[in-house]
Amino acid sequence: MENVFVDFTLSILRLNKLVQRIKTFETEKFGLKPIHVMCGYYLNRNPQGLTAKELTELTLEDKAAISRALKMMVEKGYVTCDANRRNATIRLTEEGRQFTEFICARAEAAVAAGSMDFTEEERNFFYRSLGVINENLRAYYKQLIKSGK
Q1: 69: Cβ–Cβ under 8 A, 6 or more apart, which residues?
Q2: I need a surface site. Which of 38, 46, 60, 99 has the fewest CB within 10 A?
Q3: 111: exposed, middle or buried (C-beta count within 10 Å: 0-12, 13-18, 19+)?
Q4: How far is residue 83's CA from residue 89's CA, in Å, rounded to a whole number?
Q5: Pseudo-torsion of CA 137, 138, 144, 148, nearest 10°?
Q6: What does the pLDDT read at residue 87?
């Protein structure tokens, strides 16, 4: 059982580190950081705009990190928002849309490279399995918190 735990944990950590390195490599040319990938992604999927709170929830980042990320994106002209308004709606600019189109294309390339030896059925099974593991661990964690152990 210990080997399964170690293998699982290290595999997830390695994947996360590789994804972060890829994000860093792809965002450097825009003067941005990995956190901006998911901000851009969600803003692109929501052309009506999102609030910082909504981005915090969607990206699973903390409020301060999102605030810093948005400040940088505003400074670089990738997003617009009324900085003087609480719960302001944040939207991509044309430059922001170009950034997210580039990043989405690079993300698709990375996903394709990571799963190139999978059949479509294997890929679907993998993502379904990962989703089930995620939900099961979330429930397990909630139970730990509830029981106080």
Answers
A1: 33, 35, 36, 39, 61
A2: 60
A3: exposed
A4: 10
A5: 160
A6: 82
